[in-house]
From TrEMBL:
Residues forming coiled coils: none
Main location: membrane
Domain Wall-associated receptor kinase galacturonan-binding: 33-96
Keyword Signal: yes
Record Pfam families: GUB_WAK_bind
Protein name per Swiss-Prot or TrEMBL: Wall-associated receptor kinase galacturonan-binding domain-containing protein
Localization: Membrane
GO cellular component, one term: membrane
Source organism per UniProt: Camellia sinensis (Tea plant)
């Protein structure tokens, strides 16, 4: 009788493994979906999809929109233009829709690494996960009641003169004495009667790296604006197929 229980347990395990293998094999045969296109993104393929694409093409969690011939990503409460998708390295470069090249426009949305989960939850039913690119730096907008004299605080006047015709203040930052700080900002760096209005991630070009190491005196707001207009990167991952259960995802992680 004991031997029968062993055989039954072994048979049950075999059935589970076979069914799991069949599901794995079925997932690896992708649905045929023609690439979508929008503006400069002429080949949008899974895991991304455009709104309106067939439901079996990728996953709605990675759904993008095409607005006025620009690819748009809605992330948290923000809206970002998709400048580039790097499928090989699982990266996507986006820029705040409020920032326009060749003027002094301001961003509309604040975003930092703390908006993102640092660890993927292995028991989550969600197979997709955004991650903040930790190579990114920050542009911090400070609003102060009084003028601040500090090499780290870039004066608002630099913004007004950064483009022909003057600055465009149509962003979400309200001005009193508006300053910009590039790089890491500690509590001790915040001057009296100053508040952080917004934090915007940027890719970290060599020109702006010096801002984290002793001030950014040589950097103009034009440099900062160009960095913001270039956008920042996010990583995306596909941990398990959307039609799997959380149990199947956990089994996959154990097996591989």
């Amino acid at each position: 009788m004991f031997g029968g229980k062993i055989l039954l347990a072994g048979y049950t395990t075999l059935v589970v493994l076979v069914l799991f293998s069949v599901n794995c094999y079925a997932w690896k045969i992708p649905h045929h979906c023609d690439p979508s296109s929008c503006g400069n993104n002429d080949k949008i393929t899974p895991p991304f999809r455009l709104k309106g694409d067939p439901k079996n093409c990728s996953d709605e969690k990675y759904e993008l929109e095409c607005e006025n011939n620009r690819t748009v990503l809605h992330l948290f409460s923000g809206k970002y233009y998709v400048e580039e998708i790097d499928y090989h390295n699982y990266r996507i470069r986006v820029v705040d829709v409020g920032i326009h090249k060749d003027d002094c426009s301001l961003p509309l949305y604040s975003l930092t690494e703390y908006n993102f989960s640092k660890y993927y939850h292995h028991y989550s039913d969600s197979p997709y996960h955004w991650r903040y690119a930790y190579a990114s730096s920050l542009v911090v907008f400070m609003n102060c009641e009084n003028p601040v004299k500090s090499p780290r605080y870039m004066d608002n006047s630099n913004r007004r003169s950064c483009a022909k015709g003057g600055g465009n203040s149509s962003g979400s930052v309200k001005e009193q004495y508006l300053y910009v700080v590039v790089g890491e900002l500690k509590v001790s760096d915040v001057a009296d009667l100053c508040t952080v209005e917004m934090m915007v991630p940027i890719a970290q070009p060599p020109l702006l790296m010096s801002g984290e190491n002793g001030g950014n005196i040589s950097i103009s707001f034009l440099d900062v604006h160009n960095a913001m207009a270039n956008g920042f990167e996010l990583y995306y991952y596909d941990f398990c197929p959307s039609n799997w259960t959380s149990f199947q995802c956990r089994m996959w992680k154990i097996a591989y």
